[in-house]
Amino acid sequence: MQIVVGDRAPVMADVARVAGVSQQTVSRVLNDRPNVRPATRDRVMEAIRELGYRPNAAARTLVTRRTRTLGVISFNTTLYGPASMLYGIEQAAKQHDYFVTVAALAAMDRRSVFEAVERLRDQAVEGIVAIAPQTTAVGALANMPSDVPLVAVGCGVHAPLSTVAVDNEAGAERATSYLLDLGHRTVHHLAGPRTWLDAQEREVGWRRALTVRGARVPEPFKGGDWSARTGYELGRQIVGDADVTAVFCANDHLALGLIRALQAAGRRVPEQVSVVGFDDIPDAEFFGPALTTVRQDFDELGRRALVALIRSIGGGRRAGEPVAAIDPSLVVRASTARPAP
Amino acid sequence: MQIVVGDRAPVMADVARVAGVSQQTVSRVLNDRPNVRPATRDRVMEAIRELGYRPNAAARTLVTRRTRTLGVISFNTTLYGPASMLYGIEQAAKQHDYFVTVAALAAMDRRSVFEAVERLRDQAVEGIVAIAPQTTAVGALANMPSDVPLVAVGCGVHAPLSTVAVDNEAGAERATSYLLDLGHRTVHHLAGPRTWLDAQEREVGWRRALTVRGARVPEPFKGGDWSARTGYELGRQIVGDADVTAVFCANDHLALGLIRALQAAGRRVPEQVSVVGFDDIPDAEFFGPALTTVRQDFDELGRRALVALIRSIGGGRRAGEPVAAIDPSLVVRASTARPAP
DNA sequence: GCGCGAAATGTTACCGCTAACACTGCACCG
DNA sequence: CGGTGCAGTGTTAGCGGTAACATTTCGCGC
Fold first, then answer.
1. Each residue of B17-51: pLDDT tens digit?
2. Contact flag B76-A84 (C-beta cutoff 8 Å)
3. Which is nearest to A55 in space by CA: B113, B115, B123, B58?
4. Global pTM exceeds 0.85
5. Sign of the Cα pseudo-torsion (A308, A314, A319, A323, in order)
6. FRET label pair with B263: which of A254, A291, A313, B54, CA 20 to 30 Å apart?
């Protein structure tokens, strides 16, 4: 029930008048300050309700210098991972009473990153979460002269920034070891775009697992993006090679494309070739065959990033923060099996 | 290069002092007002650069009463559709020089919707885009007493709100007709959650296509969500029925689950059963078999919603706006074929 | 009944910006 | 050569809050 006083939304002074107190007392009530008599507080609350009063955020920000707003920079919110992180971030922000504004990157170059940060700073965000797992973006962010606290999420534990990330290397190592355990002599790798830190780290993990076990390290197949299409195209190179009995893919979409390419060429999964993905997107369980993959909890990742950011706003620190790595788990399904004898 | 004057970020007065003009002249330069001599403008610009001055958004908002901020309410940004729309919205907002803040819904009930709107109003957004295609959400939004312009996107052309949507009925009708054209006697339907308008409209379109062609209208299979898992579970009911030769699914994920269930039961797709999806998610082409589906351009949807909203902010109108429906197209791939003779 | 300190409330001065109006100086006019 | 008009600039008064300080009210001991 909003009663408009004189054609304009009610302000604190209106509330004060109705409640018969000073403006300052209204402010005290609104901010839960002590030294307000309960009876007075009640009168003020009543007046607020009666008038449908709503504090003016801009005025408050002007004097307190706090916007309670955080920015999220994201390259492609369309991907399952980034979208989930955004969701987790927003959830956590709500709990901590922050607003979230998003800035999508037009492209992945330095300039776009710079512009996005500028855009957010124009809006006076108190901190920024970057969902920007590409090396170029990370580099740009790290070199950004800015007094705004910044946390990068899901972009590799080795970034020169405060980061919250899944331990990609551990996940990749686990997946690769699992395939070796099944009896495969070696494991091939269908890599993600080399500009993404996650892709790089997964490759490192894969390579290490092979090295540790003394297996041959074949040349990885490198894709330009994370899509099923790319998986399919690289898969067509792979099908020719009868040597390949196990492939660790940098994500689930690539794995899907690969499986399709293998099947199109008459190679059976997992009987002739085992395939492992990464991410555990909701569909992965229903690929044909159900995909063995490395699960990461994007939601949790987003939440943790936000908590880290808020802590850093309080503390005022920035780069070089301790890194929080979440340990991913291997989910074994039907796309992997012992190699044919 | 930010030079801090006396420990505080520079303000307009600092710029004025450095440029040797009044504060008002600085304001004029910043807002592209006429009647400033070019030489003066240059001096001011130089001072701005020198000081690293950045206008204070809160102060400006306080006096202009404009936040240049739009709110987006979204239930589950994790789904491909909503995530893409959000992306499109942000792109368009950037072009129109608006900020976008998001409010994810905790649950899909009236209260959550109400809270999200309140949250956005607290932040003084100038308009709201709701990506909330559920009937309950639409109902809640339509009844929300609020002076903030609101546009709902992707939530069915029949909503009592300004909407921008894909013509679900037309898409469903097209898919169903196509299957009938192939020679199927009838087409079964794997429906989406009945609380979503999109699901309802797709069912209506399917039903109409059958009716128009005089085909039998079988009872649709109804799912509780849009996931592949649900598609799989409903699929297990379907596999028993040898009568089923063609199924139109309310989205691609359901179709994936269904295909898996069919194949698990030894029924071949498309030889024994044809399957059609809806959305054309990027993976759809690489399902086994590649999925015939109805493509909708989520990105474009988001963009159009934003443009509609901005127009409505300018005009000041609200509900009952003309509806903009985008026509979806059928993409024929390998999951559909003539029925076995 | 009075003085005293703490609790409750009011007053005043900004926060950084823009709108409205006031003031310059100069070209142009009769 | 004094008015007139207008481009260019400065001055003043808020926008709606909060912080800091000033003031009043109240409970309580003597």
1. 999 999 999 999 999 998 899 999 999 999 999 99
2. no
3. B123
4. yes
5. negative
6. A254
